[in-house]
Amino acid sequence: xxxxxxxxxxxxxxxxxxxxxxxxxxxxxxxxxxxxxxxxxxxxxxxxxxxxxxxxxxxxxxxxxxxxxxxxxxxxxxxxxxxxxxxxxxxxxxxxxxxxxxxxxxxxxxxxxxxxxxxxxxxxxxxxxxxxxxxxxxxxxxxxxxxxxxxxxxxxxxxxxxxxxxxxxxxxxxxxxxxxxxxxxxxxxxxxxxxxxxxxxxxxxxxxxxxxxxxxxxxxxxxxxxxxxxxxxxxxxxxxxxxxxxxxxxxxxxxxxxxxxxxxxxxxxxxxxxx
Length: 275
Ligand code: HPA
Fold this sequence. Notes:
By secondary structure, the protein is of the alpha/beta class. About 30% of the residues lie in helices and about 25% in strands. The longest helix has 16 residues, at about 260-275. Bound molecules: hypoxanthine (HPA).
């Protein structure tokens, strides 16, 4: 079932039973940002499972909730835990929390993720501001009947990541001496990591980093007209670049190491987006 604008209004009503908080910026907290909320003046939170029509994440480590609060006096809604296509959800289900944040009135969105580095100039611990994405390895979340109250049938995707904001965040990160790059992200389904040949193909296509999320969500936010930026944390070099095997544990360990930098970067990004 594809949800309509009215379904989202029902979901907003449910949230309004617990808070009248009006967020301006949405932030999807990916791997490595689990403790970002410690910096937030939290006003309310609600689990996805308590909102009608929101799928429940199959990952027990994911909290699966919205947190409403002020970062530096800026009203934000944070997604602690996201949904992935590889969990078995349809792309339309994956983006329901994004559309709900749109229905709640956010004007801007920050997406974050952990990604494999494809560009040989990258190293684990670096960050990449996404300038563009390649998403043809997964179905579009917009497939199916379109509700014009959410967005147009054929949305433009020439600037899915607002390049003016990307430039500002990039400059700020450089000034703070954070290891930052700009580049192209490719999303594929996962959950298996890529093969060496797939990484070669991705590189030849122009991708700098790869992962299993984010582009789907950026398509949905652009469909709604929400200005979007996205930051990848390079947790490992992609398959075939280094001798060692890629494991989920390595991703989590590297993310923990980079947590302070990631927290600083996203904090600055929120401030820039609020200007
Ligand atoms: N590939 C895909 N997704 C990822 C990776 C990777 O190497 N690292 C973290 N997320």
